[in-house]
Amino acid sequence: MIRSDSVDAIRPVPQQRIIGKMNEYMSRRDYAAAQRHLLYWLAEAELGGDLRGQLMLRNELIGHYRKTAQKEPAMESAGKALELLAELDMEGTISAGTTYVNIATAYNAFGEYEKSMEMFRKARTAYEGSGHTEPQLLGGLYNNMALTCTALGNYDEAMELYGKALRVMEQVPDGEPEQAITCLNMANTAEAQLGMEEGESRICELVERAEDLLEAKAGELLGKEDVLLDDSAAVSALDREEKARLGYFAFVCEKCAPTFSYYGYFLAAERLAARADKLAGML
User: Fold this and answer.
1) Nearby residues of 153 by Cβ (< 8 Å), 6 or more positions away
2) At what angle do helices 155-169 and 135-151 cross, to 10 degrees?
3) pLDDT tens digits, residue range 77-106?
4) Is the separation of the CB atoms in 37 and 20 below 8 Å?
5) How far apart are CA 279 and CA 92, in angstroms?
């Protein structure tokens, strides 16, 4: 619990400004600057006694360390985040569910599948137990939980969760990139369950659906024939929110390209990788 005699002394960090700057770094794939940024503000939150700010920053650091394959600091931040949830008396809340998902996703990335599933179950209880959980949070939970199910060989449960993720993300504005990621994850699960030969038809169907989703979103964000990629002045004139949308789309393109290549969709892979590189250089 928060000590009543210390509440007045709390100096909160500017969470929205921190996240906005973090998005800028990530859109440029400047991971070193992102880490410095987060660690600077974590120190400020600790000095100011801002436990909620510390929790936000620990969550961001878990994701950052996962993406940059730094297991020990990721696990350290995970432990600190759980301690903060207890200290803030927030266990079981939607915010706690988000922390559990972040930790579970990190465990999965580092091969700790049983621990990952334990955290996903806690997150699912928190999210589904509230009537106020945003659809994109549920979509992210179901998609990432399904990855751990696949790693554990629970293919039917994984496919059920992927189906939930797709249905939820269809309700979310700008949900197409997440739907595309889920389709590619489903293709990987189909291959693991059925093998490449037996699962070929289903795999191709899913990969092509992912391509359609990403191309539709590219048309919306970049215009016909990706015209925005040839107009750096127009990109510079976009506001922060619009740049963040482009930055996230670039991240998804980069993330998805290797899977398209793996399944033999080489032109799609090249197109996605080129978009990601061009956007990273412009944002």
Assistant:
1) 192
2) 160
3) 999 999 999 999 999 899 999 999 999 999
4) no
5) 39
Return d(Cα 256, Cα 73) in angstroms, integer: 26
Query: Which residue blocks in 129-239 are alpha helix, DSSP H?
Result: 135-151, 155-169, 176-194, 200-222, 232-236
Please give the Cα distance from 208 to 80 (Å, whole number).
Answer: 41
Q: What residue spans define the domains of the chain?
A: 12-113
Task: Estimate to the nearest angstrom the gap between the alpha carbon of 75 and the chain centroid.
Answer: 17
- pLDDT digit string, tens, across residues 51-62: 999 999 999 999
Classified by CATH at the fold level, domain 12-113 comes out as: 1.25.40
- Taking the CB of residue 38, how many other CB atoms lie within 10 A of it? 23
Region of residue 153 (left: phi > 0; alpha: psi -120 to 50; beta: else): left
What band does 4 get if pLDDT is binned at 50, 70 and 90? very low
